[in-house]
Design brief:
The protein is of the alpha/beta class. The protein has 12 helices and 8 strands. It has a single domain, classed as Phosphoenolpyruvate-binding domains (TIM Barrel), CATH 3.20.20. The chain has an 8-stranded parallel β-barrel, surrounded by 8 helices. β7, α11 and β8 form a beta-alpha-beta unit. The radius of gyration is 18 Å and the shape is globular.
Length: about 260
């Protein structure tokens, strides 16, 4: 596990990385993402249909193809965080973070003592079903990434306190929910949304905190990369597949 995670941490420490959100329940698509050279995939349990039983196969496919498996969990409850980690997620992305206390509690659920109070079980996939010595497993498990996803006006009001917790590795800005909270639903390129995102990026930069965001155009991907955002996700597997299918159809009927 740590070779893949260490490689990712080293790269993002020096340059931007790129990945995609994935709604798929088919490991083949995750494997393709890795073979294509993506740095990470966000396997989505908040807005995707995957459950724990097939999520472990998606994680296996990621590891086989050399792409870091990050799971966006559906909420902040302890079991929602610990269960994906038990099956081998190397990072968890926690949505709808609004204040410092939320991310502190989530981080506690993601880490073993002395960093947290995650429920202890060594007979899980992440521990090689008990084949990994306990001391080794608990130490390695505490290296997994915690990604705090901010999405609303309340989070913006509490940004200084959130950034001051030291409870997460990456701060992710969700532009779509942020646009809704600012009264311009879906308009992620709206000047108000961009301005608020830039404020967050600057505050995080002052504290040497890595920032990420979602993009769904080449222009926004380039813009945020140039502004120092390093954890960049570009679109969604189903959206990318749709775009290519639509392009094929359009080209075919214009031959």
């Amino acid at each position: 596990m740590n070779n893949l995670l260490d490689k990712f941490k080293k790269k993002i420490g020096n340059e931007a990385v790129v990945g995609i959100f994935m709604k798929t329940c088919d490991p083949a698509f995750v494997e393709v993402a890795g073979l294509a050279g993506l740095d990470y995939v966000i396997l989505d349990m908040e807005h995707g249909p995957a459950g724990l039983e097939n999520m472990q196969n998606l994680i296996r496919a990621a590891v086989v193809s050399g792409v870091l498996p990050i799971v966006r969990v559906p909420g902040t409850m302890e079991h929602m965080i610990s269960q994906p980690l038990d099956i081998g997620a190397m990072g968890i992305q926690i949505p709808q973070i609004k204040n410092a206390e939320q991310i502190r509690e989530a981080a506690q659920a993601a880490k073993f003592y002395p960093k947290g109070q995650r429920g202890v079980c060594r007979f899980v996939r992440a521990a090689g079903y008990s084949s990994v010595p306990g001391e080794t497993y608990f130490k390695e498990a505490n290296q997994t990434l915690v990604i705090a996803q901010l999405e609303g006006a309340e989070a913006i009001r509490n940004i200084d306190e959130i950034l001051g917790t030291g409870a997460f590795d990456i701060l992710f800005i969700g532009p779509y929910d942020l646009s809704q909270s600012l009264g311009v639903t879906g308009q992620v390129a709206h000047p108000t949304v961009v301005a608020e995102m830039r404020k967050i990026v600057e505050k995080a930069r002052e504290k040497n905190i890595i920032v990420g965001t979602f993009t769904d155009s080449a222009e926004s991907l380039a813009m945020w990369k140039n502004e120092g955002v390093k954890y960049l996700s570009y679109s969604v597997d189903v959206g990318l597949f749709y775009d290519k299918c639509a392009e094929l159809v359009n080209n075919f009927y214009n031959i």
